[in-house]
Amino acid sequence: MSKPRPKRSRLVLYLSLSGILSLCIFFIEWIGSKESGSLALFADAGHIFTDVFAHLISLFALLIASKKPTQKYPFGFHRFEVLAAFINGLLLIGMAGFILYESYMRFSRPGHVEADSMLAYSLIGFGINLISAGLLVGVSKTSLNLKSAYLHVLSDLLGTLAVVVGAIIIRFTGYKEVDSFLSIILGIFILKTSFGIVKESVEILIEADTSDFDKEHLLEHIQVLKGIESVPQITVRKLTSGVFSVELQILVGNHSDRDKIVLEIHKVLKEEFGVPFVSVEILSSSVKKQLKEISVRETEREFGHHGHSHGHAHDHHH
Fold it and tell me: Which of 25, 180, 230, 288 is 20 to 30 A from 10, alpha carbon to alpha carbon?
């Protein structure tokens, strides 16, 4: 059974506050990079600016996804959240590539760095980042979109921590190349986590079978209902994290109360499992066998080809 999603207003509030904090960190670290001459601090400021952009995408997606379903969009706009997560994941991959490139360049041209100034500004950024991560850590478990935003903040936190550690090492040893080593580790971490976000987003968009929904538990609830012989097919579509649509094919006896079965299944899925979109197909065993014998007509798939032109009249007899 899926976990209930927090109220959307709470998600919007937390995401907005986190975005404002990230914007503050960007300006603080950008000013700090000018004063200290730290390329690492400048790169981290750019990293965080990308995070501000990611927050805007996630916030836009949350507001769009709150719109109710329409005739044209029967499942609502939940997939906008997934698209936002996909874009955020690609941004994270690009960010990781930038960090790895900058790390390589620092090996060849280490410049003068004012370690005390670098340390002071990075510590301020780290403290604000902790607050921002704390705002999103709980709600990130209920939304793929929020999860991607949280990973941005987490990567910011680790990036700023790397700058802090680098500043301390430079302050006491003068070994400036440590920035490059820390940045490489950070880049690899971001690459790994961002790949996971992109992979999950693509799986949702192409409607791959999801392991997030407990089909076995659902079957336990349905098979005890009177009149049901078997449940040959369950199709679960994940619209976004915590939101599913479920299609069921049910075999029933000839004298079963079909309306009552449909009503009970809707109650189970909506009230017990929190599934907003439910479709139930009720069949007898004989009809099920006939369905297997029906072949699917091959159609032309061309641009601009709409509808169907099968060359016969619609005079089907029942």
Answer: 25
